[in-house]
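Human:
Focus on the backbone:
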Amino acid sequence: MMEASSVQELYDEAALELQRRNPDIVDEVRDGSRGFSSNASKTDGRIFAMIVKDELVVKLPQQRADELIEIGAGRRFDPGSGRLMKQWVSLTPADLSTCTLLMGEALAYVSSSRS
């Protein structure tokens, strides 16, 4: 049985897998002084997934975000202003498969929307 991975390790592996599938994805490491996070995956300049406070944060359609929250898989993301973001979910994926699936859903959503 594999040793449990940190959320950062799962994120890194999932980001690499998504980059292999779609070379237009850019995994950008920033200094943390601007934007949401110091580690974010972007497509066309827009963030679709990031690590914040040792949790995976993904942007999903509001209905999907609501579903994950209802089943207790995550919670609305608060960027620190006290304002919960409707389409952003903060969670701790159990494994690489789950992390890759959620990041893939976020990539598909952000790629298809201009909001």
The first strand starts at residue 25 and ends at 29. Residues 77 and 85 are 6 Å apart (CA to CA). The beta strands are 25-29, 39-43, 46-52, 55-59, 75-77, 85-91.
